[in-house]
Structures are given as C-alpha cells and as structure tokens.
Design brief:
This protein is mainly alpha-helical. 45% of the residues lie in helices and 8% in strands.
Length: 155
C-alpha cells in the first residue's frame, strides 16, 4: 500500500517464528515510481523472478505476488516450479502456460492449489490484483482448514 516492490522474495528471505513471518534483505526493494528498466541486468533469484521483469515491463505488487506464489509452490513441494540452469529457469518463466497445481499435486487442498495458480499466472492481469484480494482468500482457506481440523478432532 506504500508503493514499494520487494523484488527479492525467496524462501531464504523469509524468517518464520511460530505464526509470524518476517522479510529480510531489502537490498532490491524499490518504490514503484523509481523503477528503471535495465534489460542488460536481470536482478533477483532466477527461480522467483516474475515474467514482467524478464520482459522489461514495469512491475508492481503483482510481481511480488508472483514470486510469493513460487515460494508457496516451493514450500508445499520441496522443489522449485522451474528447475535447471538459470537460462532454462528464466525461459520457463517466459512460457505462458502453467500446469494447474492440482494436476501436479493431487494431495493438496483444491483451494490452496487455486490460490497458488492465481499467484503464478503468467500475465499480471490474471493474478490477484491487490493484497486485499489475496489476504481474503488466504483467510478463507485458513478458516476452512480450521473448521475441518475441529470437525476431525470431534470425531
């Protein structure tokens, strides 16, 4: 909401303490209004770079959401969505098709798969448009999981 883009979201930059998450390493963070496109220097960790950065398109919070989706994918699978040498990883981000997460991981709840699919959509317009939208879906998934757990404990 303050207009900053983190631009370096990856598991190594997220510290988990109980139920709290803290971002570290703000070295690549920038205000949206101060972006300069540099096609010669691709910044960030290849596994989490949004397609628009590779294309040289101005980024916004949806770019960080893409990286967050790739982090979520890593967390639930123990591996990155794209793997291989950096050039192949970058090429993967540029491919417009994403396999639906449910097809890759049928053990994950459908709602979580849809959330990740929305985060890692190739086109910015197909992702969550605001953090409020994302927060609402995460809150809903959390409530549903809590209800399911409570019902399971009662049985």
């Amino acid at each position: 909401k303050l207009g900053f883009i983190y631009r370096d979201l990856k598991p190594q930059n997220v510290i988990v303490r109980g139920a709290n998450l803290t971002l570290v390493d703000f070295g690549l963070a920038i205000h949206k209004s101060e972006q300069e496109i540099d096609d010669d220097n691709l910044i960030g960790w290849p596994s989490y770079i949004p397609p628009e950065r590779i294309k040289g398109i101005v980024e916004d919070e949806r770019s960080d959401m893409y990286a967050l989706g790739m982090v979520f994918y890593y967390v639930v699978n123990g591996q990155n969505y794209f793997d291989g040498p950096n050039e192949e990883i970058v090429e993967g981000h540029m491919h417009p098709y994403r396999y639906p997460i449910q097809e890759l991981n049928d053990y994950l709840p459908e709602g979580l798969c849809i959330l990740i699919d929305n985060l890692i959509a190739h086109e910015m317009e197909d992702r969550y448009q605001t953090y409020d939208e994302l927060y609402n879906d995460i809150s809903f998934l959390y409530e549903e999981a809590s209800k399911a757990e409570a019902e399971e404990n009662e049985a």
